[in-house]
Amino acid sequence: MSTGFGLMAPLLRPSDASAPNVEKVNAELFTLTYGAIVRQLLTDFEDVDEVNKQLDTMGYHIGIRLIDDFLSKSNVTRCTEFKETAEVIAKVGFKMFLGVTATVANWDADGTECSLILDDNPLVDYVELPETCQGLYYCNVLCGVIRGALEMVSMRTEVKWVRDVLHGDDTFEMRLKLLKQVPEEYPYKDDE
Amino acid sequence: MADAPKKGTLRAAYRRAADIKPRDARTWQVSLNAFAFLFSEMVQYNQTRVDNIAELEHRLEHAGYGVGLRMLELLCHREKGNRREVRLLGILSFVHSTLWKSLFGKVADSLEKGTENEDEYMISEKELLVNRFISVPKDMGAFNCGAYVAGIVKGVLDGSGFPARVTAHFVPVEGQPRPRTTILIKFSEEVLQREARLS
């Protein structure tokens, strides 16, 4: 399995990467199912912040499993730096699962923080936020997915929404920040 | 994707289907795995909120109900030119073909009328999409995640004026390792009476 910065460099150029053996399903089923989940959460937890947290947690659970699926289907190999990782997520990852690509932008000086910009987002088709839910980050599950997936390849990150179309902005923008690279621990010492 | 319209400030609870400019809506697809992960999380989340199987099925059905209402509106507008079904066979055919095709990419495997009861119809599927990556542990008995699809069908039927009880069941099939799933539709009395009047 994955080791450290390990296993994600593009052997495949990002533009080639829509894996041909990925089975597809109608996006509307996906969109409406996600909407049903958000509606259930809003009914169960009256508080919008709690719903945001739940969505992030769900995304995290998905992410820790999704990374295996992604690595097995996508033929990418080691990433040598975080910039490559971000590109792989934006071009290969999003494309494989959501059928859209994101753009990576606004890198900071260290190369540990960037923005992922989504112009198109299948999760929000047919969605509007009512007055009572203005604090809701509808797509918060995506933050959790990225965080979970990266944690499984030994990167601890923080992912937050910066711009959200449902709040009136013109695009979706997530801020992805690398907090720490956690080198994987080997269970056995080499010399024993 | 480059042609998607810019979205501005939005207000109400959901946009009417007629306002959506489809970005090639018919063929827009996401990966099956993405859906499977999402559905699995939905089931797992609901498991934490219930005490027994019946409640779990009920919650999944309720979730599907909302989807069904929305699919009905969407499909009526897009596929049928806003024509309304008033006959039983019409709405069953709509569910079996148009709805199934739109949700799952194929028409349902079969549509049958119940032999014992006049008000029962069954739509069967060899392997329901939502059940493909689900394995039900033995201690959950006859629990079927197809309850979500049953909820979708119920939403469509209720929304069209054909109230019914809809449930999902596993039916073992000889020679097949996995049972097939049957969506059982039991129409309410008023539907049958109306149908009799119209015949």
Automatic annotation (TrEMBL), chain A:
Q: Look up the domain of life of the source.
A: Eukaryota
Q: What is its main location?
A: endoplasmic reticulum
Alphabetized UniProt keyword annotations: Endoplasmic reticulum, ER-Golgi transport, Golgi apparatus, Transport
Alphabetized InterPro entries for the sequence: Bet3, NO_sig/Golgi_transp_ligand-bd, TRAPP_component
Which locations, inside or outside the cell, does it occupy? Endoplasmic reticulum; Golgi apparatus, cis-Golgi network
Asked if the Swiss-Prot or TrEMBL record annotates the protein with the keyword Transport, the reply is yes
Keyword Transcription regulation present in the record's keywords: the answer is no
GO cellular component, alphabetical, reads: endoplasmic reticulum; Golgi apparatus; TRAPP complex
Query: What is known about its subunit structure?
Result: Homodimer.
Q: What family, per the record?
A: Belongs to the TRAPP small subunits family. BET3 subfamily.
Known function:
May play a role in vesicular transport from endoplasmic reticulum to Golgi.
Q: Which PANTHER family match?
A: TRAFFICKING PROTEIN PARTICLE COMPLEX SUBUNIT 3 (PTHR13048)
Q: Can you say what this protein is called?
A: Trafficking protein particle complex subunit
Q: Which organism is it from?
A: Ceratopteris richardii (Triangle waterfern)
Q: Lineage from the top down?
A: Eukaryota, Viridiplantae, Streptophyta, Embryophyta, Tracheophyta
Automatic annotation (TrEMBL), chain B:
Which InterPro entries does its entry note? NO_sig/Golgi_transp_ligand-bd, TRAPP-I_su5, TRAPP_component
Predominant location: endoplasmic reticulum
Per UniProt, the keywords (alphabetical) are: Endoplasmic reticulum, ER-Golgi transport, Golgi apparatus, Transport
Q: SUPFAM superfamilies from the entry? A: Ligand-binding domain in the NO signalling and Golgi transport
Which Gene3D superfamilies did the record assign? Trafficking protein particle complex subunit 3 (3.30.1380.20)
**Record GO biological process:** endoplasmic reticulum to Golgi vesicle-mediated transport
Subcellular location per UniProt equals: Endoplasmic reticulum; Golgi apparatus, cis-Golgi network
Sorted alphabetically, the Gene Ontology cellular component annotations on this record are: endoplasmic reticulum; TRAPPI protein complex; TRAPPII protein complex; TRAPPIII protein complex
One Pfam family, please name it.
TRAPP
Q: Does the keyword Transport apply?
A: yes
Q: Which family does it belong to?
A: Belongs to the TRAPP small subunits family. BET3 subfamily.
Q: Which PANTHER family match?
A: 41-2 PROTEIN ANTIGEN-RELATED, TRAFFICKING PROTEIN PARTICLE COMPLEX SUBUNIT 5
Self-association or partners: how does it assemble?
Part of the multisubunit TRAPP (transport protein particle) complex.
| Protein name as catalogued | Trafficking protein particle complex subunit
- Recorded source organism is Ceratopteris richardii
